[in-house]
Amino acid sequence: MKEVIMRFSNVHPDVELCIKRNKKIIFKKLSIDEVMMLINQCASQTIFSRKVNLLSQNIIGMGPGYTVIKQEGHIQYVTFNTTTYKIDFPNSIYVVKHDGKKIKSIQNYCYKKYEGGNTELYDYAMPNVLQGNMLCIGSADRTIRNNDVEGALNKIIATPYSHATFNGINGFSTTVAYFEYLEANPFPYKLLRKLNKKLKDIEV
To answer: How many CA atoms lie within 13 A of 149 on its CB side?
Structure first.
């Protein structure tokens, strides 16, 4: 029989382990990623049966505490100041930080062509964006149900917009004028603002 005690720290990146096997005790340090891999391996060997956990086809990356989600451009209903618009929504990539139960924060970007880690990133061309390409979540429901991170993200995206002005794309500064344009026209990818950053450069 093997017993393990783990100590995590918000100062040091490594996890300290105290491992007891029969009467022998050893101490070890591992990275968080290595520990998560060991936990998953241990869980897969338990006697309890579990249903398979399927990922959305839009999930392009994940790690401890975050999920990366890619959504291609699509038609979506958005609301601002009690008015609903049917707009051409841009290609978007979201880095969703969460604890498995609630979303903590969302980094958001636009892209023109998806090329894996070499995908060029652009400013998120929608209102309600804060500094650092962070989405303003406000009072939106952050709850993750049934491990569906993308479902929780979509609920936040569908929450009515509250910022009347924004600067995420060239040629527009007010939310109303922008949404009225997107109702009548395809999304103007040529107006996106390049960040000189690729997907592989994002830090979490």
So the answer is: 28
